């Protein structure tokens, strides 16, 4: 029955366009929420770094605590930049899709866009958008706006923390917020150690594990 229906019934272009616009708006709102969350987390982390540096009683773990927080701040800023770039790509997809449907209305045919394929492929890799972007991809393929992408081209995005480059950013963050003295000669191991910075020292004591958990939730 479905096969016969497919032979005689063609998708309504207006309905396809509405579906595309709806999915694009859904993804845009999701990105806006994530960007706002990251902005708030950045503000909180900066305050925690400054609070740690101005405590009356510094311990041997204070420089490590500050460096760990600065490292998380670098991660937050990188992800913030990545999501802003993704939103620009999504807006580009929206404009190109509307243009493609407008051309179809005039000329009666749809032109496959390689740029839309490139942008959609990049957006599908975002954990924040994977589900709805795959749905949008299916609608665009059905409308002949883009060709179907291979599954391996839609794999997970890499978010590696390049040590040498990242540590330079960490140094800049520490210098920016509290001065160089708390970042000199402090190495951060790959795994967060069970250091005393997670134990209450004062009301301003930060909870590093909670912060890392929140950042991981944003990436998941």
UniProtKB/TrEMBL annotation:
It holds the Pfam family Snf7. The keyword Coiled coil applies. Residues 147-176 form a coiled coil. The keyword Disulfide bond does not apply. Keywords: Coiled coil. PANTHER family: CHARGED MULTIVESICULAR BODY PROTEIN (PTHR10476). This is Vacuolar protein-sorting-associated protein 24. It comes from Orbilia brochopaga.
